[in-house]
Specification:
Layout: E1 6-16, E2 21-31, E3 34-45, H1 47-60, E4 66-72, H2 75-90, H3 104-114, E5 118-123, H4 131-156
Parallel strand pairs: 1-4, 4-5
Antiparallel strand pairs: 1-2, 2-3
Helix pairs in contact: 1-3
Length: about 160
């Protein structure tokens, strides 16, 4: 008897004010009409690290294998997962230029997080009016602004 998987939609985005600079990430999980927004920030990071973090954090809260429709505006994350990661793993995380894969710590975390799930990846053009993508974009940017302001206050208070 096969157990049917829960169907979950996940929308992710990352933001960085400067690259590198203060960054934020957000993920919106939707299950049976219920929504859960996750978000966070980092002081010194890159846009790509925040995009990866959003997906990792979203997947990490799932307590069982799920069928996921995952929406991202990051070709880096989507192409990395679907096209590049299999070869990186075969070559011990060395890229086609024979250099260590950038953000390997996050790629390895993502690799662990995706293994139990069935994921259909969807690329969404950023800033194109897609409602859920706009929401995670706004939240990721808000998180980056929060940490940027905190850093300015800490600098001012020396």
């Amino acid at each position: 008897m096969s157990v049917s998987l829960k169907n979950i939609a996940i929308y992710t985005d990352g933001s960085c004010l400067g690259n590198p600079g203060p960054g934020g990430w957000a993920a919106l999980l939707v299950y049976r009409g219920r929504e859960k927004m996750l978000s966070g920030n980092q002081t010194e990071t890159t846009n790509n690290r925040m995009e990866l973090t959003a997906v990792i954090k979203a997947l990490s809260v799932l307590k069982e294998p799920c069928h996921i429709e995952l929406f991202t505006d990051s070709k880096y994350v989507m192409d990395g997962t679907l096209q590049w990661m299999p070869n990186w793993k075969k070559k011990n995380w060395i890229n086609s230029k024979k250099e260590p894969v950038k953000n390997v710590d996050l790629w390895q975390q993502l690799d662990k997080e995706i293994e139990d799930h069935q994921i259909n990846w969807h690329w969404v053009k950023g800033h194109s009016g897609h409602p859920q993508n706009e929401r995670v974009d706004d939240e990721a940017r808000r998180q980056a602004e929060i940490i940027q302001e905190k850093m300015k206050l800490e600098d001012a208070n020396g």
